């Protein structure tokens, strides 16, 4: 009877550890960078959040960036959206979606965005080129 309880405890503990590793270190930490490429003397306002975290409002100067890091959850539902604003226009954009970006899209778990005058671009590190993902509203 005692060895059965020990076996069950070992199984439960092993499952708990496996799930913990899946949600933290095994998948790796993601780093998201949002760069202001609007042009000289043009600031970018950035306010990003997920279901669980509000990253605050940040003023990003030209060629500066706002960045953060996180682990995606086990269900791959992690999503960060950002309100981005420049002088005359603003918009709400999904900057990280685990289902879209959590695979091989972000090279070495580095997701890089360039905010330009005509829209928001994802930097594809494999092709070393910007890809237009969103136009300003």
TrEMBL record:
Keyword Calcium: no
GO annotations of cellular component type: extracellular region
A Pfam family hit: Self-incomp_S1
InterPro entries, alphabetized: Self-incomp_S1
GO biological process: rejection of self pollen
Subcellular location: Secreted
Signal peptide (residue range): 1-28
Protein keywords: Secreted, Self-incompatibility, Signal
Family named by the database record: Belongs to the plant self-incompatibility (S1) protein family.
Descriptive protein name: S-protein homolog
Species name: Nelumbo nucifera
